[in-house]
Recover the amino acids of this structure.
């Protein structure tokens, strides 16, 4: 099965050696087969933290936001993806599947934040994060910048997020959705970027 690691660019830089969660078997595969071609378009992450497999037919139908593909439900596979999810130096997010990077199509952002009743934040991957700043775009989506990276707040947790805002714990700044990728250093569609290269 074609499949993809994380290097955060603005302001965080990651690599295989920096990701303590990466499986040892994945590290060993990278060392053994360092030149396996990258895979594009086959995996997507939606705005609710769900993973989707996108076969050739789905990819030909159009971009991820309109044609998601098959929802992944196998918990061990999802856990494996999430442990080995990273970004490269250009802000393209991927899942390191053994020696192969499977680049991820993002619906909105690289992380989907869940908010606890005490306003603690954790990513769709389960990783705990420390709040740094909040942003709201023109459609009203709430984003958080954290020590882990940038992401969108899960729609189910907007009530808790509203409480944090009302209490003055989070003070959202307005931002245009078109500026998010450049400002926070991520790429929504590595497949489109790859296809545009000569």
């Amino acid at each position: 099965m074609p499949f993809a690691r994380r290097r955060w660019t603005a302001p965080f830089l990651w690599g295989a050696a920096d990701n303590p969660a990466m499986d040892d078997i994945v590290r060993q595969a990278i060392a053994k087969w360092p030149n396996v071609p990258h895979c594009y378009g086959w995996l997507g992450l939606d705005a609710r933290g769900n993973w989707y497999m996108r076969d050739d037919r789905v990819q030909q139908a159009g971009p991820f936001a309109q044609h998601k593909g098959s929802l992944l439900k196998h918990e061990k596979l999802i856990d494996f993806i999430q442990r080995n999810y990273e970004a490269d130096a250009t802000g393209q997010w991927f899942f390191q599947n053994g020696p192969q990077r499977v680049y991820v199509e993002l619906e909105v952002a690289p992380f989907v934040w869940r908010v606890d009743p005490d306003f603690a934040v954790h990513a769709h991957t389960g990783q705990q994060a420390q709040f740094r700043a909040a942003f709201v775009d023109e459609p009203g989506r709430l984003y958080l910048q954290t020590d882990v990276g940038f992401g969108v707040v899960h729609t189910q947790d907007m009530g808790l997020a509203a409480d944090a805002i009302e209490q003055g714990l989070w003070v959202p700044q307005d931002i245009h959705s078109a500026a998010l990728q450049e400002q926070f250093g991520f790429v929504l569609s590595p497949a489109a970027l790859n296809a545009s290269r000569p």
